[in-house]
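pinned: reference chain
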Amino acid sequence: MDLWFFEKKATAEGFKKVAGIDEAGRGPLAGPVVSAAVILPKNFLVNDVVDSKKLTAKTRARLYEEIYTHAVSVGVGIVDSVEIDRINILQASLLAMSMATQNLRPQPECLLIDGTFSISSHLPQKPIPKGDALSVSIAAASIVAKVTRDRLMEEYHAYYPQFGFSQHKGYPTRAHKEAIRKFGYCPIHRRTFRGVKEYI
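pinned: its structure tokens
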């Protein structure tokens, strides 16, 4: 499989700066949803860049540094739990993707987006289902988004250690759900999510 297929296709259509976009954190009960947008150079030679879910935390951390070192541009967008509850997780994810795109310098000419939805942008864009496994740019974005979000959740752990955010990063593990039953919810919990709203 050629992970550069979609980037090459966009280049053949005349686009020189192609950004891959992905998000992390749609499923957790707590914390923000984080999106990243990445423009890779044509000579990007890091071989291990694949869907972040297939990588160990150690490998993701190494690749995160390499992506930031070699990328033409990296943008990040973060939408917190309050906004997620206000507009719903899908809209929050799309908003975070749009924010990540706006934070790219230089700006891209074309967007490759993980999933089936377009985002709010005037730029030409192509949603790609399972794009994090099919496009190297989207895979790079998935790594940046995942590492950024995990590090945020580790910081939240210092404020709310009783929930164990450093371990499960807010996902609905058995330990997390038991902690919610025992301690209730905290300010970064998503109050409209099943598993949290029952305790409000």
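why pinned: The mean pLDDT is 96. Residues 43 and 70 are 9 Å apart (CA to CA).
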